[in-house]
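Case study: Shikimate kinase.
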Amino acid sequence: MSVPTAPDAAAARPVVLVGAPGSGKSTVGRRLAAVLGREFCDVDAVVEERAGKPIVEIFVDEGEPAFRALEVSTTLELLQRPAVVSLGGGAVLSDVIREALADHHVVWLQVSAGAAADRVGMSAARPLLLGNVRGRLIQLLNQRTPLYAEVASQSVATDGRTPDEVVAAVLAEVAG
Ligand SMILES: Nc1ncnc2c1ncn2[C@@H]1O[C@H](COP(=O)(O)OP(=O)(O)O)[C@@H](O)[C@H]1O
Ligand SMILES: O=C(O)C1=C[C@@H](OP(=O)(O)O)[C@@H](O)[C@H](O)C1
Ligand SMILES: [Mg+2]
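Here is what the predicted structure looks like once written out:
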């Protein structure tokens, strides 16, 4: 059996995407991973796979605290991989996650409430946005903007940019 060599420290660290719902974390993360030749991990998708149901059903059946607990444990696990890791929009609410992000390359995809509302529309997939989507996004951004700023090592504006333009802006600061 061969002895595994220690991975290169920089290559072993994930590139992490944070930002509000509709900022493009899942879309941009997938494309960025393809360009960088890295695995793509979407925390929400892994949570759904493990729970065996969509996030909206986890919220309804078990409540938001149960979702947040799954989100924290899954996020901490996926941050160990040399991947592109897209977090859920509310992950930064967790002190534990914010601490874990301190020594990572964290890209904050910035979006206005108006642009995010246009992107997510009336989709029922995001339970926290049900009802007045734009109003809820304004509330979420007011609460979370300081938290995204706290963890970010790179900020990229996404309003008026296509996903590929956002990927290019991220790549300007991320080495393969
Ligand atoms: N830069 C962009 N411009 C326009 N639409 C976008 C952009 N980024 C993502 N979208 C679209 O917005 C919606 C939400 O994107 P998504 O990647 O799921 O965001 P998040 O994971 O941050 O909630 C999707 O329909 C996606 O195709
Ligand atoms: O903002 C939030 O608190 C949430 C955002 C969602 O992810 P996206 O940001 O990918 O939509 C998902 O994790 C869940 O619905 C909660
Ligand atoms: Mg997403």
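For the exam, be able to explain this: Residues 1-7 have pLDDT under 50 and may be disordered.
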